[in-house]
Amino acid sequence: MPLLRTLPLVLLDADTYARLWSLLDEGERARANRFMFEANRQEYVAAHGLVRLWLGRLLDRPPAALAFAPITPQGKPGLVDGPPGLDFNLSHTEGLVACAVTLEPDCRVGADVEPGGRHIGADVATAMFAAEELAWLDARPAGRSGPDMVSVWTLKEAYIKALGVGLSLPTDSFAIQPDGPCLIRHDGSMPVGQGCRLWTRDLASGHKAAVAWVGPEGRPAADLVMEEGLADLW
Ligand SMILES: CC(C)(COP(=O)(O)OP(=O)(O)OC[C@H]1O[C@@H](n2cnc3c(N)ncnc32)[C@H](O)[C@@H]1OP(=O)(O)O)[C@@H](O)C(=O)NCCC(=O)NCCS
Predict the structure, then answer these.
(1) Which residues lie in coiled coils (predicted)?
(2) Does some domain include residue 217?
(3) Does residue 50 sit within a domain?
(4) Which of 9, 67, 100, 109 is the most buried (most CB within 10 A)?
């Protein structure tokens, strides 16, 4: 079953931050130190500490000993020497980080989190969204503005991230139906024999989260399981 663990950054006191920092490897610490803004550094440390703690718990391995490397040409991170069937995906945004995990063979996950009130300009939607998504938005009370735009955005991003292809996939080459939600067109981006399942959640923190699961057709994913925080992971 796909899992999504969220970590609101209000839960991150100085002691917790220091413990997460101590789990990171040299490369992660160097990258964290390159951020110009402290808020971005905190998001990064929280996200990478979370994935280490959580994968360490799920796989019964020391979190600080885990190593990561890209698993797609566009740079989707994977676990070095991970068990077959493990896939995970991180997302960070203002005030929240999240990590999706699946442990089923041949399945992939993608996650995206955004502030629910994030402004996405109508011009951006027109340029990035599929015709079906624009038609859906135009039939909504707020049209091409407001939280519906964020729902479409996060779902599309989660699908792209599950595939691991980044923006090499034109964002209008596939279409999401946010009611459901489900994938209604993919123009071949999903491999033959694979199916997709999508979830979107409004979080108490005010963020929207979306998760995409891609796996063997005919083996639908169980429902998404949500978890929050770090308390049970130390
Ligand atoms: C890099 C990208 C995968 C996600 O970027 P993002 O939305 O800015 O950031 P998120 O916080 O959600 O995700 C970043 C994390 O995804 C992971 N990631 C990086 N490359 C990835 C890839 N090719 N596939 C999946 N995950 C990837 C990494 O863990 C990264 O965090 P890290 O750099 O701290 O390790 C890519 O899809 C992108 O550039 N998106 C831009 C946003 C956009 O235009 N979306 C269109 C929606 S219509």
Answers:
(1) none
(2) yes
(3) yes
(4) 100
For residue 2, report the distance from its CA to the centre of ligand 1, in Å: 19
The answer to whether residue 234 sits within a structural domain is no
Cα gap 51→60, rounded to integer Å: 13
The tokens for 27 are 């490369």
Which CATH number covers residue 11?
A: 3.90.470.20
| Residue 233 counted as domain residue | no
Q: Which domain holds residue 195?
A: 3-228
Taking the CA of residue 111 as reference, the ligand 1 atom at the shortest distance is 12
* pLDDT tens digits, one per residue of 171-194: 999 999 999 999 999 999 999 999
Termini Cα distance of the chain? 23
- What is the tens place of the pLDDT at every residue in 9-26? 998 999 999 999 999 999
Of all protein residues, the one whose alpha carbon is nearest to atom 24 of ligand 1 is: 164
35: its two tokens: 């951020």
Q: Is-above-0.90 flag for pTM?
A: yes
Cα separation, 44 vs 35, in Å, equals 9
Domain total of the chain: 1
